[in-house]
Amino acid sequence: MTQENKLKPTRKMTSENEYLRGFNNEHESEAVPNALPRGRFSPQTTPLGLYTEKFSLTAFTVPRHENRRSWFYKLRPSVAHGIFEPIQHRFLKDELFLTSVLRPDQTRWSSFALEQDDSDFLDGLRPIATNSTVRAQQGISIYIYNANLSMVDRFFYNSDGELLIVPQLGKLSIYTECGLLHVEQGEIAVVPRGMKFRIDVEKSSFGYVMENCGSPLRLPERGPVGSDGFANDRDFLYPRAAFEDRKGNFELVTKLGNNLFSCPIAHSPLDVVAWVGRAAPYKYDLTLFNTMGSVSYDHPDPSIYTVLTSPSDIPGMANADFVIFPSRWMVAENTFRPPWFHRNIMSEFMGLIFGQYDGKQAGFEPGGASLHNCMSAHGPEHGVFHKASHAQLTPEYYANTLAFMFETRYPLSITTFAWNTERRQSNYMECWKGLDKNFVMGE
After folding, report:
1. Is residue 390 flagged as an active site residue?
2. 443: pLDDT confidence band, cut at 50, 70 and 90?
3. CATH number for domain 291-420, candidates 2.60.120.10, 1.20.140.10, 2.70.20.10, 3.40.1190.20
4. pTM to 2 decimals?
């Protein structure tokens, strides 16, 4: 395989007409010609008899470059639904989060993939770890999902935070108020806080979800890298307007304060005929990430692989970062090439989409996960350390691998489900056995 072929994206490029391009652009789209008002957002009479509705993800008065809002032009206003009542979910309830455990232990789980009974995306969600204070709108929660049923007559919106969805198996069709996103392994999707959606699955599907309760995800600054590199704005795709005009006995579910509520609704709430603005869902193909790295010596900090970030009030200490470790070249000279041993003020949750992560030999499986909390020591296992310390340092291509990390400034508590599941590897610490003293007194 030539170097040129190795660096090509593995996915067929998306049709120019299927999506709108550009991260956080002021997009506009209409499913029916002339549905968008011109020259103003809220005319006295909206074209085609539609209702005007403003959808705000940020306060009205935040600076212009951070403001995210959209105008929707709908068949019916969103207030047209029944009374919400609390509903039960096997795993999504505030009591579960309150009884989560904060542990300093290095923790790893075997693959969760397709461990399920019949469930749709919502019923198949299971929380793994959390540090969120949803009422203070900060922190994150991490979930897995297992789903083999589509949400046909059921709709969901999350009042607690935006959802970053990372498929590991199976394809998802995410029908949103703004339109449709098709997402599969190697891609991600972000559904904004409060955005109504439903998800259709193709066969059985599994993946990871980060619920971001802090500031909306954005592209990180490039600093000395300059004007290009990392995830480029042009590669983020937004849906074109598409609407459902369906009546029936439907269910609308919301999550608020880590509790679920449901109400009847007599029509599909995905009835936005046209929209304009920045508050919209989007997808991104991770094979398009322009990976940076050392071309001289030393393994760089993993922050150089950051795709999206949710800043906190302390510059450089993110509420949440989404980081990937994709296929890439490694050429550093006189360097221990795997990730080094380290302790970090940030907490690190990792998952594996496919392949093998270069810091591990076995046990870190596609569909599995690991958590190294604030100041918990971690690094390459014994076998990786020994091999890398004696390897011949020729240029090497890490092929067919994709791992990711949710990194956060706040310690992550492990949910009771995740701590008690048989998938938690009680022998995880054994991978570091054999890291004995190698010290030799110099002459």
Report:
1. no
2. low
3. 2.60.120.10
4. 0.93
